[in-house]
Amino acid sequence: MGWFKSQMWKVIDWKDDGNDTMVYRFQMPSDKYEIMSGSKLTVRESQVAVFVHKGKIADIFQPGQYTLSTNNLPVLSGLRALLYQGRDVVVKSDVYFVNTKQFTNLKWGTKNPITMRDADFGMVRVGAFGTYSMRVFDAERFLKELFGTNSTFTVADINDHLKSLLVSQMADTVAESKIPMLDMAANLQEFSAMCRTNITEKFREYGLDITSFTIENISLPQEVEKVLDERTSLGILGDKMGTYTQKKAADALGDAARNTGTVGTFMGVGMGGAFGNAMNNAFSNLGNAQDAAPKQETKPKQKYCGECGAAMSVGAKFCPECGAKQSSGSVCVKCGADVKGKKFCPECGTKVEN
Questions:
Q1: Cys bridge to 321: 196, 211, 310, 317, which one at CB 3.0-4.6 A?
Q2: Global pTM value
C-alpha cells in the first residue's frame, strides 16, 4: 500500500514564470504519477484550473485552494466504492491552467494598405497600426475554440489570427462610419473606441475580451500627403497666391533653360506651362475675384497750352481755349509747369521751344 501511495501526485499548481503563456497543461514528473482523491489543488489569482477527463471538460476551478474529493470533482463520484473501502482514488485526467490576466501592449497593423472611399479624396489606400490588450474571460469556450491539446499555448500562437480580426473589423468600421480621412486622423481616440466596440463581439466568440484598442497612426498615400502639404502651404501664403504662381512658373522655365537638349527644353517649357495651367485651375476662384475688381481706365495722353495752361491733345497745334499757336509759351507743353524764362522744364526736363 505504501508503494501505491508513493506513485500518487498530491500537489497540483502552476507558477507562471513567463509573460505570454495563456494555457499550461500540468505535467506529472513521469507516467507513474497520477491525480488522486485528497490531492491539493492551488489556483492563484488571474488563473483558472480546468479538469479534462476522457476528452471532455469535467470541472473548472476559480482562484483558491482545494482538496479534491467527490464533493468538488464530479469525475470522482463514479469511484466512491474505492473511497468507501479506504483506498485512494486514482483520476486519469488532464489539468489545464488558463491565464486570465491582461496581455497588454500587443502590436497590430495593416500588412497592405486598405482601399476605402473618402468624401474629400475619392478612392484612397490607407494603412494603420497601433496596440491592443486582451484577456481570457471564458476559459471553457477558449479551450474549445482555440486551444486544442497542446501542452502550452502562448500569445504568439494566436496573435496573427487576432490581428487579422482587428484589421478586418477596423476596415468595416471605417466603411460604415463614412468619416472623412482628415476628421478620422484628427480624432484617433474617438475612432479607436468605435473600433473596439465593433471588435468586442467577435473576440467574445473565442472566449476573449478586448480590454483596450488604440490606433496610433493612420498613414495616407504619398500623393494625398503631398496635396495636404500644398494645402497647408497655401493657407500660410494667404493673399500672396500671385507671387507663388509666378515663382513656380519661373522655376519651371529655369529648369528648362538648364536642359541643353532641344527636346528637353520644349519638355521643360511644357512642364512649366502644365504646372501654370494646373495652378490657374486651382486658384480659379481667386483669379475670378481679382478679375471682378474695378479696373482703372487709361486716360489719353495730353499736353498743355504754353499761354493759358489749358489741356489739349498731344497733336494739337493751336489751343482750343485761347487760340495760341503751340510752339512757345510760359507753360510746359508736357506737364503744364511754369517755364517762363527757362530753357528746360524744371519738373519734367522737357526742352522749351521759343
A1: 310
A2: 0.58
Task: Read off the C-alpha cell for 281.
Answer: 485651375
Q: Is the separation of the CB atoms in 14 and 26 below 8 Å?
A: yes
**DSSP category for residue 143:** I
Q: Give CA 227 to chain center in angstroms.
A: 16
C-beta pairs of 307-316 under 8 Å, 24+ apart in sequence: 307/331, 309/336, 311/336
pLDDT tens for residues 10-61? 788 999 888 889 999 988 766 666 677 677 889 999 999 998 887 788 888 9
Domain count, the chain: 3
Query: What would the grid cell of residue 64 be?
Result: 483558491
> Residue 342 is part of which domain span?
301-354
Residue 175 belongs to domain with CATH number: 3.30.479.30
How many Å apart are CA 218 and CA 232, to the nearest integer? Answer: 19
Q: Which residue is listed with cell 466568440?
A: 205
Domain boundary among 222, 247, 282: 222
DSSP secondary-structure letter at 325? Answer: B
> What is the tens place of the pLDDT at every residue in 79-137?
333 333 444 555 567 889 999 999 999 999 988 888 877 777 778 788 889 999 999 99
DSSP state of 283: T
**How many angstroms separate the most distant Cα atoms in the chain?**
153
Residue 232 CB-half CA count within 13 A:
7
Task: Let me know how many helices (H) and strands (E) the chain has, helices first.
Answer: 10, 15
Burial of 205 (0-12, 13-18, 19+ CB in 10 A): exposed
**Residue with cell string 475612432:** 191
- Contact yes or no for 40/12 (Cβ under 8 A): yes
CB 221 within 8 A of CB 116: no
Q: Which helix (H) or strand (E) holds 204?
A: helix 188-204
Task: Give the rounded distance of the alpha carbon of 139 from its chain centre.
Answer: 35
Report which residue type is found at 313. Answer: S
